[in-house]
Design the sequence.
């Protein structure tokens, strides 16, 4: 019998895929009632470890123990029934079901006559969601909720199981500051009730807020496990990447010149007042706001993803009528969307096909794609952006998050875009990939592109942007010079307290 203080032990676990050893002799033990954080770069093995724990992958070698007893999870359902609940970064919700149906799917509650008791399920769903302090309409399909509301439903579903271990995989990616505080309070409540939490995040500041222990993975191996109180952020970064990584943002050489993009008095769905902005050639314009502030809605209006009700958009002085994203791409305006997997990539296609998709018309011969030219263009941008891939024909779905994001960026550079709108370009990517994306964004600006950078990470906006706009409640509420303002001032404006 193993030491009873450990609710979960994974001993010398190995897992390989064709050509890749994802986990190599990994030992990972979690104490009962702790919040144990798991960190590492994309591709370090975190997701594989969690999928083994969740019953999604069988292990090749090693042992898993739960409460000291050896267990084998042959399916996610079996893992759930034995006390392992996993909330993945990619929400596992049915878009056509409402919140109640999603939370209780496959385990509906019934009354004494065996009839599904929907009202009871609705009450219990409300009890799970209410602690977040955010209104969620329980009666509409999930697809009609905001991304943040969908995340809350997924959290509620995970908490609805009487679990011994709850795994949170990047839960904070789309939560506001207030919602994140509520999540932390829920995690503290889980710990106090004896539930063990495994928390995965690329945001290292979160590790120091809620973590008791932290384990670092690199290249499928455990680099170290230590109490959070005994480690610093630079220590963790060094363990994750195997070297010291400077946190400075790339230096800028050039300076913005003539006006490229003008948005004048634009009204569109999600914007509650007229929006106006200017982006100059070679400039990075930052837009900061909390979830629901209207940042993404403004980006969609400029890029043709939503209808502009009135107002004007001009590119180099010429009025544009952008009726669709394809129309915007042809006219030089491209959007790197917040949800890269659903809106930025075709996951079943190769790296080469995704990289060149916007220019397929340009590289056709007698109505057929010139595959040689396609591969030549793709190879140029894959090398230029340092995309780590097994080959140009490798399915883009198998790349890490950071490399998927690079493919989306490569696509728009290959299309000769003049204005790039980057909506959360580093969401869900590790610290090493972030540094590389920062460099690519700065390089694009140095080459004369106009960049609109939308990010929930205030330090990122201040570190990269030449000017910063702040949005709140669908309105632009301020403009700042990042060299002359602090984070507290911008956050206060975004929250409506200044």
Sequence:
């Amino acid at each position: 019998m193993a030491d009873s203080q450990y609710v979960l032990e994974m001993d010398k676990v190995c897992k390989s895929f064709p050509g890749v050893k994802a986990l190599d002799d990994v030992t990972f033990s979690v104490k009962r009632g702790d919040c144990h954080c798991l960190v590492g770069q994309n591709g370090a093995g975190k997701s594989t470890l969690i999928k083994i724990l969740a019953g999604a992958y069988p292990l090749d070698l090693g042992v898993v123990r739960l409460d000291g007893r050896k267990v084998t999870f042959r399916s996610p359902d079996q893992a759930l029934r034995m006390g392992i609940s996993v909330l993945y970064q990619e929400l596992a919700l049915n878009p056509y079901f409402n919140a109640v149906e999603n939370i209780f799917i496959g385990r509906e509650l019934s009354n004494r006559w065996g009839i599904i008791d929907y009202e009871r399920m609705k009450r219990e769903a409300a009890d799970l969601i209410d602690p977040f302090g955010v209104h969620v309409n329980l009666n509409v399909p999930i697809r009609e909720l905001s991304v943040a509301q969908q995340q809350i439903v997924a959290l509620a579903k995970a908490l609805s199981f009487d679990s011994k271990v709850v795994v949170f995989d990047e839960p904070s990616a789309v939560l506001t500051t207030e919602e994140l505080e509520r999540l932390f309070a829920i995690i503290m409540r889980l710990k106090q009730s004896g539930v063990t939490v495994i928390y995965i995040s690329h945001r290292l500041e979160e590790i120091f807020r809620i973590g008791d222990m932290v384990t670092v993975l690199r290249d499928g191996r455990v680099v170290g496990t230590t109490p959070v109180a005994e480690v610093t952020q630079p220590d963790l970064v060094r363990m994750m990447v195997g070297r010291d990584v400077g946190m400075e943002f790339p230096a800028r050489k050039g300076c913005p010149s003539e006006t490229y993009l003008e948005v004048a008095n634009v009204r569109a769905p999600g914007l509650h007042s007229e929006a106006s902005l200017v982006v100059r050639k070679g400039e990075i314009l930052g837009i900061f706001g909390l979830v629901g502030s209207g940042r993404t809605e403004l980006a969609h209006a400029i890029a043709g993803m939503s209808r502009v009700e009135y107002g004007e958009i001009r590119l180099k002085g010429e009025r544009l009528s952008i009726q669709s994203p394809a129309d915007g791409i042809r006219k030089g305006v491209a959007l790197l969307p917040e949800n890269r997997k659903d809106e930025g990539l075709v996951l079943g296609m190769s790296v080469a096909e995704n990289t060149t998709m916007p220019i397929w018309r340009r590289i056709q011969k007698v109505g057929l794609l010139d595959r040689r030219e396609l591969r030549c263009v793709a190879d140029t941008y894959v090398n230029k952006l340092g995309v780590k891939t097994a080959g140009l024909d490798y399915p883009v779905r198998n790349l890490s998050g950071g490399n998927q994001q690079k493919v989306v960026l490569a696509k728009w550079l290959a299309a000769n875009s003049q204005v790039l709108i980057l909506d959360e370009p580093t969401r869900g990517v590790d610290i090493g990939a972030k540094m590389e994306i920062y460099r690519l964004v700065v390089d694009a600006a140095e080459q004369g592109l106009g960049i609109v950078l939308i990010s929930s990470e205030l330090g990122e906006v201040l570190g990269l942007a030449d000017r910063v706009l702040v949005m709140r409640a669908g309105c632009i509420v301020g403009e700042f010079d990042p060299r002359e303002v602090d984070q507290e001032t911008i956050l206060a404006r975004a929250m409506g307290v200044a």
